[in-house]
């Protein structure tokens, strides 16, 4: 950002955050799988005020042909914010510097969990569309995309999730929203593979001490139990409503 | 029967089974699947077709080069049929055929053999993961649909299904296939399909 301003909003008031959450509390979230009928797999995620749709196509023929890899499937990822998704900055749709970077890091998260060697020569395309953004969209995008991939029947070692942790003055907090993201002292999105707590993505804005870093990682890993539960539930729910008495 | 998702523990013991991954002595599911606890197998609920030698498929001839026909199977790799060896008459682009997978070259190109032309009829597409249920144990399901609707049916493992018969029969067969796709994971399917077809024939 550059420059320095002491004119920051107060982010912690009476020991609570601006939206009333505790330091280690996630925003409310809800996942629904299988909402885009044309896609092989899809998911809709509401995470606080974030609204995200993720859709997956594939494994399908890699296009253009030269992008294919004879040894494994290639993963393509497109993260995009809808032009109406947030107040400013994202008014123009289409890839920009930020979206290109996020697409790349999300692709790398999934390259580590999808069993790409099972589909040599093919491509798996992940689309993440932010309909409404309120901070932490890359993390929420990963959480949604992993449900969409599983719903497409793509073999993967695990269902990754992502949440951010950050520092407000001397306090470590979990799952920063837009205003906290903008004015906090540090912000760190993390993607984790819950079966062995392997870290798949770690980015950081600002600075953290080693102690704070470990505290942040522990907060994220701890919160993951709830997220993993919700992801699994969303996938199983796809098969729950049809049947028995229906049709 | 229980649904498992990627990353979920299937067994605390290392287990060699399809659609699983063994790590640190534990077995994890790698796909969304139905777990059959008696047999200890995972039956995938979603996903694309993986070609195996001996699979019967339905495809469309899309072109002919010097010595091979290109066949469209809804698969992300090339599928070919060597010409002049098996077919009784030269195939022309646009023709619908039923064929058997003879080989999968380098795990990629699908080589077909023993083509049979399919004349008339219509095709429907089904999710390849549901095809085993549409066929049923030793063809029971597809035979039941075929007999009760008076249609001829060829179910390709690749998810393309060819149906020929009178209009009413074809429509009923399509409805039955749709129902199987939607309810493949719920036990007692054969009986429900039978009831549905009986009800419709009144």
Uncertain residue segments of chain B: none
Which strand order spans the largest sheet of chain B, edge to edge or round the barrel? 7-8-9-11-10
Oligomer: heterodimer
| N to C succession of SSEs of chain B | EEEEEEEEEEEEHHEEHH
What is the total domain count of chain A? 1
Which structural category fits the helices and strands of chain A? Answer: alpha+beta
Query: Which structural class best describes the helix and strand composition of chain B?
Result: alpha+beta
Number of helices of chain B: 4
Q: Please, what is the average pLDDT of chain B?
A: 88
CATH superfamily of chain A: GHMP Kinase, N-terminal domain
Q: Looking at CATH, which topology of chain A would you report?
A: Ribosomal Protein S5, domain 2
Strand content of chain A is 25-35%
Low-confidence stretches of chain A: 243-247
- According to DSSP, the number of beta strands of chain A is 12
Number of domains of chain B: 3
Query: What form of chain A results from the Cα inertia axes?
Result: globular
Amount of helix of chain A: 25-40%
CATH class value of the largest domain in chain B: Alpha Beta
In the CATH hierarchy, the architecture of the largest domain in chain B is 2-Layer Sandwich
Describe the protein's architecture and organization.
- The complex is a heterodimer of chains A (247) and B (202).
- By secondary structure, chain A is an alpha+beta fold.
- Chain A contains 4 helices and 12 strands, in the order E-E-E-E-E-E-H-E-H-E-E-H-E-E-E-H.
- Chain A has a 5-stranded mixed beta sheet.
- The termini of chain A are far apart.
- The C terminus of chain A is likely disordered.
- Chain B has 3 domains: 43 residues, OB fold (Dihydrolipoamide Acetyltransferase, E2P), CATH 2.40.50; 62 residues, Nucleic acid-binding proteins (OB fold (Dihydrolipoamide Acetyltransferase, E2P)); 80 residues, K Homology domain, type 1 (Ribosomal Protein S8, Chain: A, domain 1, 2-Layer Sandwich), CATH 3.30.1370.10.
- The two termini of chain B are 34 Å apart.
- At the A-B interface, strand 5 and helix 4 of A face helix 3 of B.
